[in-house]
Recover the amino acids of this structure.
């Protein structure tokens, strides 16, 4: 816990009032004042003040202090409602310190880390009264308790803690159902028992490990405190105490000294009260300024972290999308190839749809053509030979005929000559 916060809570627990530490409507339901006011204002303006709730004066001259049942240090944003007397119970100083130490340790090391940084963590605190009262008015608790519920869907848990007011007792962990049995009228603390059927047992085991560590630390502190001997100053003071005076003289002297010292004591109490109030307000202001600064720095760091995460997420998405894009390209290539094959199959199917006789005619056309060439050439050669033979026959026949004519002419002419010549002889 922060040292300034511990100082503030310690001063509050000693019975010193703060602005707004008394609920006026509890003692006077008809009061029109603010819900929480200062005790000094309430005494002057609220009817029957202190009849139904404790006052700071109830803790004076007693061995008990105002201990907060729900410590304001458990809140990230301290509320004034935690400083009211209705949130207080009589506690010894040692018990109060150990109670606050236990709660802060459990919150920081067990409850918040195992519940999503406390966003879904719900806490209930209270006391169970004992038979002992301070000034026959304010009941001293037999034990104080804390119930925690982590309402995370599918991964929640619930757990209770009990600490008895005896100095040698340590904080105990109990199940919420067992804690409800210890309380008057056995109330149900959380709706549906904080999702009892869906609780995460692994997280509860880790929390119990931290609880065991806190218990061991408290045992060590108790052993160290018990081993510290009485101071030499106390021993010397006890040794140098004067013998008791006679009863009558001591009574008169005590009354006389009390009469003289009372104004100085009241003045000292007033000065002490003013100093404490000023210190508390200064500490609260410092706490508020520090908290705002821490929140501002945290907000900047959160934004920077968010931007960094977004940048890396974008890069990761692009890297992850590269194989997908490659697969898309390959898919398009395969689709194009399938389209080509489909076109080829369609062409083949159309070709196969032509009659077989046409294919046979087309296929045998070259064979018939090549086979006909020799026959055609032969026919051409025969034709040419016949033509030439006919030409020669015609030429020779014509020549023969001419020769025959000529020979016949000459033969006739020669015969006549011969005949003529023979007559002359």
């Amino acid at each position: 816990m922060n040292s300034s916060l511990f100082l503030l809570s310690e001063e509050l627990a000693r019975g010193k009032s703060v602005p707004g530490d008394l609920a006026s409507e509890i003692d006077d339901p008809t009061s029109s004042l603010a819900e929480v006011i200062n005790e000094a204002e309430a005494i002057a303006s609220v009817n029957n003040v202190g009849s139904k709730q404790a006052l700071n004066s109830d803790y004076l001259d007693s061995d008990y202090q105002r201990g907060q049942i729900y410590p304001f240090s458990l809140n990230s944003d301290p509320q004034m409602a935690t400083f009211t007397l209705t949130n207080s119970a009589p506690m010894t100083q040692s018990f109060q310190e150990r109670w606050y130490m236990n709660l802060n340790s459990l919150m920081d090391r067990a409850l918040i880390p195992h519940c999503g940084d406390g966003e879904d963590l719900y806490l209930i605190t209270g006391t169970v009264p004992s038979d002992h009262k301070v000034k026959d008015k304010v009941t001293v608790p037999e034990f104080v308790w804390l119930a925690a519920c982590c309402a995370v869907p599918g991964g929640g848990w619930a757990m209770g803690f009990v600490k008895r007011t005896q100095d040698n007792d340590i904080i105990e962990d109990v199940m919420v159902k067992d804690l409800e049995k210890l309380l008057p009228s056995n109330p149900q603390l959380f709706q549906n028992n904080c999702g009892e059927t869906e609780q995460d047992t692994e997280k509860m085991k880790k929390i119990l490990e931290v609880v065991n560590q806190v218990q061991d630390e408290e045992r060590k502190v108790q052993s160290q405190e018990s081993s510290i001997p009485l101071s030499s100053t106390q021993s010397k003071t006890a040794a140098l105490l004067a013998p008791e005076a006679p009863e009558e003289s001591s009574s008169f002297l005590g009354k006389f000294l009390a009469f003289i010292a009372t104004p100085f004591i009241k003045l000292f109490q007033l000065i002490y009260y003013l100093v404490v109030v000023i210190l508390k307000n200064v500490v609260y202001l410092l706490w508020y300024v520090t908290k705002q600064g821490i929140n501002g720095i945290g907000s900047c760091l959160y934004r920077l972290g968010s931007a960094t995460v977004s940048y890396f997420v974008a890069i990761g998405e692009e890297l992850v999308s590269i194989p997908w894009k490659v697969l898309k390209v390959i898919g398009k290539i395969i689709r194009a190839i399938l389209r080509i094959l489909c076109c080829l199959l369609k062409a083949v199917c159309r070709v196969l749809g032509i009659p077989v006789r046409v294919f046979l005619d087309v296929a045998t056309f070259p064979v018939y053509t090549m086979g006909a060439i020799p026959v055609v050439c032969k026919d051409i050669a025969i034709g040419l030979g016949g033509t030439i033979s006919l030409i020669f026959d015609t030429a020779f026949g014509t020549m023969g005929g001419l020769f025959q004519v000529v020979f016949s002419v000459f033969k006739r002419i020669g015969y006549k000559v011969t005949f003529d010549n023979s007559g002359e002889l």
Q: What stands out?
A: The first helix runs from residue 3 to 13. The longest strand covers residues 121-134.
